[in-house]
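Lecture 7 notes: from sequence to structure.
We start with the chain below.
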Amino acid sequence: MRHGRGFAITELLVVVAVLATLISLVVPAVQQAREAARRMQCRNNLKQIGLALHSYESVHKTLPQGQVRGSAASTHTQILAFLGQRNLAAMFHWEKAMTDPANYKATAKSLPVFQCPSDPSSGYVPWPTGSSGRSGTTNYVQNMGLSTTYFDTTDTAVFLAGRAIKLSEITDGLSNTAFFAEIKRGWGVGSSAGTGIGPGHPEDYSAPIYVTAPALGMSNPGVVANPYDPAQCNDETSTQTRFRARGNQYYRGLTRYTFYNHTLPPNAVLRDCVTAVSFAEGHMATRSYHRGGAQFLVGDGSVRFVSDSVDDRVWRGVGSRANGEVPSEF
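Predicted structure tokens for the same chain:
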């Protein structure tokens, strides 16, 4: 009786090698396809925010404020009704601070339209404080221009504290002016400052460094000769105090939570920083997990991808609303 011939060891090794090669080709392709889908969803979220902003403007004849003084409500909260969230908007007690217990239920809601699926962060702020609940988060924040403060009165910011901008004030043109952009949410649990965060740590570049107010000085140009040089932010030591909750309270219109500016390029290798006293000033870049750049919403409602290597002058031009620039292609 003849027995069937089995696989020789060399043949088996060849088969294993072929399978390993196929897997090495397929897995990256699958990962790339998934990221492409996530990036598209992220883009669509920004488009929805753009539509909501224009719907708000159609009703109120201005854009929403960057922060409502008194309550500190962010731009995000003001457009909820135009994002199909009228019931959630009705839950807010607008006459009270966003951190008031009366607003706990409303501010604990996280909306998919504010989340970029490419961001792997699981960071959150326990909400209410000391509870097992979590505050609502966002990966998309409003543009405060070339200023380091959200209350600057120069012709740069689109979203300001205590003031609503009209479209007619955006004289550089809607297609040349950024409205919203992506950020990396903080990885840490809680909003308190964290240490032990240095180069290579998951929270690095998503946890702004605390600095003293005079170091920023866009609103005090006599203090800092060049407000567009945020090198003072770039302390890499793991002992440097950091703010860990970037983007993790979408409803609070504060620089460290829901603003970004154009004083840093996209995905800057310089770190974000914020004043440790008022939290009103900061250098806060747009950042993303998309390879090579980040997505941002333009005033005409379109969403564009900006490269990490964009020319600084072009990026600053896109960041201001009325400085007279006509930025080249970005």
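Points to note: The first helix runs from residue 9 to 60. The chain has one domain: 11-319.
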